[in-house]
Design a protein that fits this description.
alpha/beta; 115 residues; 3-stranded parallel sheet
């Protein structure tokens, strides 16, 4: 959770704790000059149920990219180690190359190339 989200839980008497979000910790500098790869980031989430619920939408986007000949992009999917296998299984038949990474250092470098 972010600090601004506490109020949504506290109004119902639920205890809330600020913990942040991994994406907010990325130190990548986003400039057009350091685009080495053409990447589109798909952020599935950090829980298995989020991945299952969001997959159909990402699949629609993938199919749209293929249909519109945007195959020159690669899909970057940062994740956690225990979720990597699930995402690999779901994206196995995708026609666009997927970089599924659970390595924080690699993720920081890849974020620099996200479109």
């Amino acid at each position: 959770m972010f600090k601004f989200e506490n109020k949504y839980f506290e109004k119902y008497g639920l205890k809330a704790t600020f913990i942040g979000h991994p994406v907010s910790l990325i130190n990548a500098k986003f400039t057009n000059s350091n685009k080495q790869q053409k990447l589109i980031a798909f952020l599935f989430g950090s829980r298995e149920n989020e991945i299952i619920k969001l997959y159909p939408y990402f699949n629609i986007i993938h199919d749209y990219l293929v249909k519109n000949n945007l195959n020159n992009y690669e899909l970057f999917i940062p994740t956690l180690p225990h979720l990597k296998k699930i995402i690999k299984k779901l994206t196995y038949n995708w026609k666009i190359k997927c970089i599924i990474s659970d390595n924080n250092n690699e993720n920081e470098n890849l974020y620099k190339n996200v479109f």
